[in-house]
Specification:
Helix 9 crosses helix 13. It is built from 14 helices and 11 strands. With about 375 residues, it is of the alpha/beta class. The strands form 2 sheets. It has an 8-stranded parallel beta sheet. The protein has a 3-stranded antiparallel beta sheet with strand order 8-9-11. The C terminus is likely disordered.
Length: about 375
């Protein structure tokens, strides 16, 4: 396995550009980079530019992963670059990204089922609870898009890997894989996002393990709050996710899996919104009715996990929501958004150190960039 990072959360990735970001990844001691889409490597999918990125990643001994973007047709208008890539034909745009990625050996491709709008609090922050279209209609639309792209993916030996994103459940992803085919559809397992759907990360890892082909490695604070539960991204080891149990599950299922950190983004790259509080409305009847697959056993285990984490918070071992937010972002005024470049780097290093420590303890081998270069 290799430990790398998602490019969006790599500080200054946009200003540095893809080639310089590869150098940055190497400087940080990480083993690879996950560009969300091929457009993040080259907005025009220029073959020479993509080959240069591939060549540099290989020279540095880094893994290179990519994707094709959001496949929910009901949120396509919010991602105009995907349609523009096909000259107005979004399926052609997706197809070009699959073909361009495959041409440089990127065959595991991220797709996501919707958008998260952090400016809204509660269930309306994600597309699952849109009021203009049902979630089932959106799932049906995603299935149709995946079916249209499946022949292209199969022709190139590629997989379109659905992220356990903020709005979708692991059960729904499994049904999409069953309908479209595991030969061209897999999973990007985000270790933290399922918490927003009331799913226990360990339960979800076990359900999805045979199909996990990419990852987003993150941790989170989850604690009781008015209206339900607060959610807040934390460095790995500082949150609720049990990596000591999850990482062996992933390693057993796919020993060559890349682990891509998805950390808190520097406010220098993306200014913090004035209402960052994410509420999981787990006790709300509408929220509960929207999760028919969630069993009482899993929900009980989830709440026991929340209670155990609350003990850590009350002991002072980890800061509560307000203390952490104030120390990083100047809460509640947001006049001093202090979580800049250096803080973001520290977040990455703390997370990487925790994952490496767990891997050492569990006997999971993590390949380094240097080891790959020596082998070559």
């Amino acid at each position: 396995m290799k430990l790398g990072i998602d490019s969006i959360k790599l500080p200054q990735s946009k200003t540095r550009g893809p080639l310089a970001s590869l150098d940055h990844v190497k400087e940080l001691g990480l083993a690879g980079i996950f560009f969300s889409t091929a457009l993040d490597m080259s907005p025009t999918l220029e073959p020479g530019a993509l080959r240069d990125i591939r060549a540099k990643a290989d020279d540095l001994g880094l893994y290179l992963e990519s994707g094709i973007g959001k496949i929910n047709p009901y949120c396509s208008a919010e991602e105009p670059a995907l349609r523009a890539a096909g000259g107005g034909d979004i399926i052609a745009g997706f197809t070009r990204m699959i073909e361009s990625s495959a041409a440089i050996g990127c065959l595991e491709l991220w797709v996501a089922p919707g958008n998260f709008k952090s400016e809204y609090r509660g269930r309306l922050a994600n597309d699952r609870f849109r009021t203009d279209v049902t979630w089932q209609d959106q799932l049906d639309g995603m299935e149709k898009v995946l079916r249209k792209l499946a022949p292209v993916a199969r022709a190139h030996g590629a997989h379109m890997n659905i992220e356990t994103h903020d709005e979708i459940t692991s059960f729904e992803i499994l049904r999409l894989i069953e309908k479209v085919g595991e030969d061209c559809v897999g999973v990007v397992f985000d270790t933290g996002n399922g918490l927003q759907r009331g799913e226990h990360p360990v339960f979800a890892a076990r359900r999805l393990a045979p199909y996990i082909r990419q990852t987003h490695i993150k941790d989170a604070y989850v604690g009781r709050a008015p209206g339900g539960l607060d959610f807040q991204t934390r460095p790995c080891g500082g949150g609720i996710v049990d990596f000591a149990t999850i990482l062996p599950i992933l390693a057993d299922a796919n020993p060559a899996l890349n682990l891509s950190l998805e950390v808190a983004q520097s406010v220098e790259d993306k200014p913090r919104r004035a209402n960052p509080r994410q509420c999981i409305e787990i006790d709300d009847p509408i929220w509960r009715a929207g999760h028919p697959d969630l069993t009482e056993d899993e929900l009980a285990a989830y709440m026991a996990m929340v209670d155990a984490y609350e003990v850590r918070v009350k002991s002072g071992a980890v800061p509560d929501w307000e203390a952490y937010e104030a120390s990083r972002y100047g809460y509640p005024t947001y006049e001093n958004q202090s979580y800049g470049f250096n803080a973001a780097i520290a977040f990455i290093q703390q997370s990487a150190d925790h994952i490496r420590s767990i891997c050492r303890d569990k006997g999971i081998a993590l390949a380094s960039p240097e080891a790959k270069q020596q082998a070559a």
